[in-house]
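During the no-cost extension, the postdoctoral fellow (Dr. R.K.) reprocessed legacy sequence entries with the updated structure-token encoder. One reprocessed record is reproduced below for audit purposes.
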Amino acid sequence: MVIIHNTKVIITLVVGSKIQNPVTDDYNSIGDSILMCTIALQGFIKIMPMMFAKLKQTREEIIGFNVAVFLGLTTCAILNILWCWSVLEIIPQRSVCLPSNFNQSIPMVYDLFHESPAEDQCIYSPSLEKSARNGEIVTVPLSIILENNYYNYKYVSVLIQIFMLVSIIVSFITMGSILYHTIHGVVDSYLDVTFETEAKYRGILNYLTVQRVVRWTLSLIVFTIVFAVAFSQPKGFKIVLEQVTNLLMSIEIGVFVAIMIYKVSSPKFNSLPIAFQLPNWFLYFQYIIPIYFISIFIYDIYFMTQHHS
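Re-encoded structure tokens follow.
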């Protein structure tokens, strides 16, 4: 998947450098991007404990894990910047209102968020603005533009669609594993966990314990709801993911995770052996977590009041 993603970014960047669509800066719209990036960061923070639990608790393993995390985040940041730059050079930021009647003159660029001409008067050209209004991911207008306007680069559109298919599957499995383990923990906290380690070798009926049945049933119900909402209302699902989920997870990480970090760094736990202990000066960075996520929480409330009032 990494190879496909890198290839996609490089090819799209090359194609974008040849098209060179004019780009207009608008830093007033930076908030939407910050919220989406924060969601990705929150998901990363939530999946790290699952990854860390599989490590051998040795100094070498933990150092290697920290280095891998740092390099992974750095690589993602660089690739995201290159991807955004290449997309901006291919997809127009705003739509052009193309007349449905060819005898009419073609108006200038339209701002879809503030102007709403009659639907039968024009056809909006693909743009980032139109994509945002319709709740689409950026690869939708990108594929349309490459297939219709730049036929020589149609293979790039196919490559992007393949990557997005793989990316969505991997993302759902990754985030879904977090949801499944959450359900797993909730069920086990309310039910007496008495698994028979050799039960599965004695028949399927012995393997189907109450805990497993409840886990699978709840997981099936929850994942079905997620699938139904995502497929039936993709725009609404994006809004919930971008704003409501961001709001709740900012509280979780900005408050509760920060409290956990503060507690474990207190003198009460100094006597516990740690395979790889960070230097004392590094503990000051723990304050970045609550400051950042509480700031995102406040901005998210402001963003919702401005766009949904």
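The two ends are 41 Å apart (CA to CA). The first strand starts at residue 95 and ends at 99. The remaining legacy entries will be reprocessed before the final report is submitted.
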